[in-house]
Amino acid sequence: MGLITNILFPVSFSPSCVAMAPYVKRAAAIFGARVSLIHVFNPASYSGFEQYLRRPEEIAQDHEEVARQRLDAFLAAQFPLAEYQRIVVPGDPATEIAQAARSGFDLIIMPTHAGTFRRMLLGSTTAKVLNDADCPVATSRHAETIAPRPLEHRVWLCSIGLSRDSERVLRFAHRAATDAGSQLIIIHAVQAADPKLPVQLDLQEQIQSEERRQARQRIDELQQRVGSSTAVRVAVGPVKEALLEAARRFDADALLIGRSPQPGVHGRLRDLTYAMVRDSPFPVMSI
After folding, report:
1. Which domain range does residue 253 map to?
2. pTM
3. Does residue 243 belong to any structural domain of this protein?
């Protein structure tokens, strides 16, 4: 069985959702996965006039029926109702999406509303899903009115930070890239002694330092445990800028990054993860 067999596609009926649909279809085809569409509606979004005339439970039922009809009709040509499950639930969108994903989904694919997401990341539904969901989440900030570039069989990048969680991240990336028939490349950033120096990337193996040598050795050990033998690129500089510069050097389908396995006190996402999702030149799959 493949790594990804069930994909959850949250739908808010926005232009970005319409634009994201071809990307979702392509991802499903590559992984041989099923897709389910989910829409979360607000059961309390009724007017005072409605509340005056009818009981709240009747109004909520009507709103659910309207939401279900809209979801059934949404992109019916691309996602025929007979082939693609629809899920309609009331409540907070991020909470319900994360909860639904726990019922057997391997991946959530959802767009970010480009300008808003960049400025208001912490308050967005997508950011909350990234923090709350247990399964990987693929996002793209390039889906406001046009679809992100479709997945093909190009390079997949995996950002490794050499933490205790790095083996889990690399193992997932290795399996996912193998299933997708893509080349996997590991990128790792070494903090420069002088943060003012420009980012250096060892595409020609020209950067020599003890930190780089140790990083290479640890990554080699990780790859042995995972069963991977992929290429490694080490960037030297401020970590965020170094990783983003490394990503920009490749014609890649996706950037895979790690999240904390558990929400914890500070949540799954750290500042670096937010920055990578926000500024990556192509879609990010956070694991």
Report:
1. 155-286
2. 0.86
3. yes
Looking at the structure, tell me whether residues 173 and 260 fall in a common domain.
yes
Check whether residue 173 and residue 272 sit in a common domain: yes
Percent of the chain's residues with pLDDT above 70: 76
| pLDDT higher than 50, residue 236 | yes
130 and 40 share one domain: yes
Q: Are 287 and 130 in contact (CB under 8 A)?
A: no
Amino acid at the residue 50: E
Q: For residue 129, which amino acid is it?
A: V
Specify burial of residue 99 (Cβ count, 10 A radius: 0-12, 13-18, 19+): middle
Token pair in block for residue 21: 């649909």
Which helix H or strand E contains 275, and what residues bound it?
Answer: helix 271-279
SS3 content of the chain, % helix, strand, coil (to 5): 40, 20, 40
In a domain, 148, yes or no: no
CATH of the domain at 273: 3.40.50.620
Give the C-alpha separation, 4 to 178, whole Å: 12
What burial class does residue 285 get, using C-beta atoms within 10 Å of its C-beta: 0-12 exposed, 13-18 middle, 19+ buried?
Answer: buried
Q: Tell me, what's the pLDDT at 193?
A: 63
DSSP letter assigned to residue 271: H
Q: Is there a single domain that holds both residue 129 and residue 17? A: yes
Q: What would the pLDDT profile of 149-197 be if each residue is shown by its tens digit?
A: 667 767 899 998 888 889 999 999 999 999 988 999 999 888 766 656 5
Residue 48, pLDDT > 60, answer no
Q: Do 49 and 132 lie in a common domain? A: yes
